[in-house]
């Protein structure tokens, strides 16, 4: 991995950031493609391109990188999951 990536200075398009956030939220490929209004084949190409851009082997590593470098925050991910009913808060049970 080059110095620019190790220091967390890689830039992302808004579309890449949106895709990373949705993957972190747990969307499966078919749901993700629908959410981003693209074909499954296009989605796979975009995912491969993102992994090559970061020189990372898989999408979970991309998520780790994004969280560690402030591309997305865990609060954004959880807020989206709560708002669409995917998670319930642990308090009050």
Summarize the structure.
The chain is mainly alpha-helical. It has helices at 3-6, 14-24, 29-35, 40-54, 59-68, 74-83.
Q: Uncertain regions: pLDDT < 50 for 5+ in a row? A: none
Mean model confidence by pLDDT: 84
Count all strands and give the number.
0
* Assembly classification: single chain
Order of helices and strands: HHHHHH
Task: Give a description of the structure.
The longest helix has 15 residues. The mean pLDDT is 84. This protein is globular. It is 61% helix and 0% strand. α2 packs across α5 and α3 crosses α4. The chain has 93 residues and is mostly helical. The protein has one domain: Arc Repressor Mutant, subunit A, CATH 1.10.10.
Keywords:
93 residues; mainly alpha; Arc Repressor Mutant, subunit A; 61% helix
List the helices and strands and how they pair.
Layout: H1 3-6, H2 14-24, H3 29-35, H4 40-54, H5 59-68, H6 74-83
Helix pairs in contact: 2-5, 3-4
């Amino acid at each position: 991995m080059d110095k620019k990536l190790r220091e967390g200075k890689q830039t992302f398009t808004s579309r890449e950031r949106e895709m990373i956030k949705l993957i972190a939220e747990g969307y499966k490929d078919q749901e993700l493609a629908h959410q981003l209004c693209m074909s499954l084949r296009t989605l796979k190409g975009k995912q491969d391109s993102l992994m090559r851009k970061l020189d990372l082997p898989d999408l979970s590593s991309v998520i780790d990188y994004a969280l560690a470098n402030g591309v997305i925050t865990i609060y954004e991910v959880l807020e989206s999951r709560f708002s669409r009913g995917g998670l319930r808060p642990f308090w009050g049970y």
